[in-house]
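hi! just following up on the protien thing from before. the input was this:
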Amino acid sequence: MPRRSPRLAARAVILHQARLLLVNAYPDGMSDLWCVPGGGVERGMSLPENLAREVHEETGLEIAVGDPCLVNEFHDPASGFHQVDIYFRCTVRHGALDPAWRDPEGIVSRRRWFSREEMAGIRYKPDSLPQAAWDEGRILYDPLEPIVR
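and the predicted 3d structure came back as:
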């Protein structure tokens, strides 16, 4: 199997009224795993530009992208897939979650604001997400972990 370069993705850590915006990126309820919005970067666009585009596609929100707060890697040993996610602190510039909003790619099926306490009752990735969202002050690194569905 030929070696592929890792895929690069940008992700948005958006806190609003002490709640973190999470999305379920599995169509038709295939998984109960939640993550923050974002996705793969396109060549020729900066990470913040890519992130603003991805967040708008997945949520309908317009955001301001701030500083990085987390770098996370995950991989699938069986397929060789390896992704590096860079998480940025972001704020909502315009918009609100609209239940009628549809991700044009059909990937994100649900979106919701969660308190830190509510996150204890759901499955999410990466494991360090609450610390990155609520414990400001340094950039975290969450090392290579197997992909979860």
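The CA atoms of residues 70 and 140 lie 5 Å apart.
The chain has one domain: 7-146.
cheers
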